[in-house]
Amino acid sequence: MLDLIPSLHGWAPTIIGQRFAVATIVRASGSVPRPVGSSMLVSNAGAVLGSLSGGCVEGAVVAAALESMDDGATRLETFGYSAADAFAVGLTCGGELDVHIEPANGNPGGRLAEALLQLVAYGLDEPVALVRRLDGGGSGAVVISQPAAADVSHHPQLRALLDLPGDPGAGRARSVQLESFLRSGATGVLQLGGPGLCTGAATLLVESRLAPPRMLVFGANDFSAALLPAAKPLGYHVTLVDARPAFASQARFQTADEVVTAWPHHYLAAEAAAGRVDARTLICVLTHDPKFDVPLLETALALDVAFIGALGSRRSHVQRVGALLDAGVRPERIAQLHSPLGLDLGAVTPAEVAVSVLAEVIAARHPAASHQPLRETSGPIHQERAAKPAPTHSLQQEIAWT
């Protein structure tokens, strides 16, 4: 339901004053338009907020939601492609969806309605998580304001949702599994069972959104002016850094979330020391000046970050590698550097180079992808992404990594 946050404010009167139902994708396979966690609200008057498939199955979902409001029962509907019946409700893209439909009575004291009203207060980029029980006909929802620091033992509502005993130590293994998932910023379905849960097994839909990952762009020039606005729609918090005030202060760089005038390697070292650089951070070096590039890359390659890239020619790359080796940077760390930065798209202009750079950023996030034109590949377009290893063998995950 986190995908609905930008539009929830206008729906607050509906949530309070009417019966409604929430339809949510809880399993997706093959080529499907929307990932797990995508939700649609349906009021008893037939008003709709959100989409699950771009139109393929919405009519059937609305009908099922109205029925759920009438009888008060949750439903799990499966939609797929039926080649045998051209008029059957299904996905023309050939994938398959399981949609969980849960009614709410419109009472703001109800758990699901209350959770939605809490989500209204969150901005588009604010970290937040929502945990819902899917088993037993649906038994509530809990909003968590800081999923990166989630702690079940200090969250009575979450413990109640999991039906854990009052003893903080009880069910700790299951709590750790849930906390790990919340802190990852992932969305998916968790199957938790065994000792520590009074009711036995619990099926949870967990939607977790962390603060946007940072993209640190070093160098105020034509290429960064094109890259800054192009990176924003990908969900990055973009910072431009340049040591030269006359360059950094230009109006064309105001599309960045922040512009900093500082020596690049000093700024990066200070941000890392303050804990504002993490394993999701991207670093793009566009300065084209060895006096900035080399100390900056030396600092960057000592950090645990998601991506480090440096723009320039192959000759510049060879010179950088030599300088980094002379500075004592290990060859295996230099091998992690994306340089020359960008996929080979034939890019020439700054706007084209920005596309090339972001294409490599996306490709680095999905190393199993072929990076070929779709017309030269076969199989589902939206391949299922491999799940990260579970913290313990007893945790089963169906994950849509975002």
Topology at a glance:
Elements (H helix, E strand, L loop, with lengths): L4 H4 L3 H6 L2 E10 L9 E5 L4 E3 L7 H14 L3 E5 L16 E9 L6 H9 L8 E6 L7 E4 L11 H7 L9 H13 L2 E6 L9 E8 L4 E5 L3 H10 L5 E6 L2 H4 L9 E4 L2 H10 L8 E4 L4 H11 L6 E4 L3 H13 L4 H4 L15 H16 L30 E5 L2
Parallel strand pairs: 10-11, 10-13, 11-12, 13-14
Antiparallel strand pairs: 1-2, 1-5, 2-3, 4-5, 6-7, 6-9, 8-9, 8-15
Helix pairs in contact: 7-13, 9-10
Tell me what the structure shows.
The protein has 402 residues and is an alpha/beta fold. Strand 2 and strand 3 form a beta hairpin. Helix 7 crosses helix 13 and helix 9 runs parallel beside helix 10. The C terminus is likely disordered.
**Structural class label:** alpha/beta
In terms of quaternary structure, the protein is single chain
Which geometry do the CA atoms define?
elongated
Return the domain count.
Answer: 2
Mean of residue pLDDT? 84
N→C terminal distance: 14 Å
Helix fraction by DSSP (H/I, runs of at least 4): 25-40%
Largest sheet: 5 strands, antiparallel
Strand order within the widest sheet? 3-2-1-5-4
Taken as a percent bin, the fraction of beta residues is 15-25%
Our Rg estimate from Cα atoms comes to 24 Å
Number of helices: 13
Low-confidence stretches: 83-91, 194-199, 385-402
How many strands in all? Answer: 15
| SSE pattern, N- to C-terminal | HHEEEHEEHEEHHEEEHEHEHEHEHHHE
Task: Write a brief caption for the model.
This protein has helices at 5-8, 12-17, 58-71, 111-119, 156-162, 172-184, 222-231, 245-248, 264-273, 290-300, 314-326, 331-334, 350-365; strands at residues 20-29, 39-43, 48-50, 75-79, 96-104, 128-133, 141-144, 187-192, 202-209, 214-218, 237-242, 258-261, 282-285, 307-310, 396-400. With 402 residues, it is an alpha/beta fold.
